[in-house]
Amino acid sequence: MGNRMTLFTKGFLKENPTFVLLLGMCPTLATTTSAVNGMSMGLATLFVLVMSNMVISAIAPVVPDKVHIPVYIVVIATFVTILQFVMQAFTPEMYKTLGLFIPLIVVNCIVLGRAEAFASRSGILDSALDGLGIGLGFTLSLTVIGMVREILGSGSVFGWKFISGDGMLVFVMAPGAFLALGYLMVLFNKISKKQ
Amino acid sequence: MESFRILISAIFVNNVMLSQFLGTCPFLGVSNKISTATGMAGAVCFVITLATLVTYLLNKYLLVPFELEFLQTIAFILVIAALVQMVEIVLKKISPSLYQALGIFLPLITTNCAVLGVALNVCTKEFTFGSGAAHALNLGESMVYAFATALGYGMALILFAGLREHLEMNNVPKAFKGIPIALITCGILAMAFMGFSGMV
Amino acid sequence: MSVCLTLVCLVCSALLAGVYAITADPIAKAESEAIKSSVAKVLPQGGEISESRPLEVGGQASEYYTMSDGGNVVAYAVKSSVVGFGGPLVLMVGVTADGQVFNTAVLSHNETPGLGAKCASDASFTDQFKGFDAGSKSLSVKKDGGDVDAITASTITSRAYTLAVRNAVEAVGRIKGGE
Question: C15, C22, C83: best mutation site toward chain B, by most B Cβ within 10 Å?
Fold first, then answer.
């Protein structure tokens, strides 16, 4: 049981996909213009990660070794497309905001990485937990980055404005994404080294 | 004139890496040295242009007529994966020297989201260049757009590799070493590129 | 080996076709809902809103809706798209029968977050167009000698927004002239 617990929690800090493993940089930089956007992208990735992890762990034993990567990609692409339709139907505004980065979850290295490194050789329940943990870790980092950029860039948190007027606009724009992530990583390194 | 506008827009104004964040993972991964960056840039140019050509035709003559647009993502990623494999095999046979130069980068390109991103953009988005009305791209424009985007990616990659080579020789605080300082440098580079915005 | 890959592709395609069939209706509904709510936003309350009709706005094919009250058309909602700073900027513009702008709404934009993107959210900019009388005032930004205050540091977006409204007003003039 304790084993399962670490499986679930390791994605938060020890194997955090953004700050430690440095995976999935494109959506991390592109969609974190605000806390809500970052969180939505994280949750979208979480959904694909859990579903594809479960299916891949179920079919892995019968998939011939030579075609396993294409098969995994097809499975992942299927869930991504399902997610696209569902978002388009029920959260059209968010779908518009995240735009291209929803279909691009297909090439997010986190998803294929977990399929290859974990789900293909573990049970369904463990794979689901692993996907959930890593996905939540990713969501957490994206929300934090989004929050920092929103506070600095627009002077608001989750859409609630605490200063009138503009913040430092550069943080909402492209360069601010790199700067915010860079400095947050420095902070993360500093804190984790001390422990 | 229109092609020239697309070229400038895709290389400088909407640089695929510095303003749209596509292909960041390999960007941070292979930008340690100018030589590897150049190799990667060449391979990406080649694959993006080719992949856009194939996916454009696939979309126009197969998916749209049969109303199968919902298969776009899945079809495009399979095409790209297959294409990369094919390019690898063909290059090995035809030009071993080019294969030597690009070979190790080819497998990495399948998961470079710039490739899938450009292919999807060309088939789903409407573009505006200059004062013309928003419109979907035709085949010629798509090719120019894809090639220009790839050029912009390559240029950013090589520029950045040059900066990182210099960074290596400097004494950076421990917590900044590696990726963090690279990201901050990238931010400053992106700021410089913001100067181009509004040009086209 | 290839049998397996084909099988997986077939199963996945079939699954997607199924999901597509289920979600096609809600997607279409969400889209028409978005248009409807923007039309309702830019028109006065009460009255009957017509189906969409084709119209040329600013030299491009577009569409418009009319609102009639007791058989008389009292207002028009015109979809107007122009080129903004970062790409297409599409507005819904409500114009009353006497040529006044009633209200405007942004349908889609690609403007810079925090700068041009304010055209969709900043009330001090968008409220200028409420009740704007295009007959007595000039629909251009102040920099160009008009009566519209541009968003700070976003002249190009403001210009595009104003142009979209001007095109819509001009198109409504043509509809009325044709009647």
Answer: C83
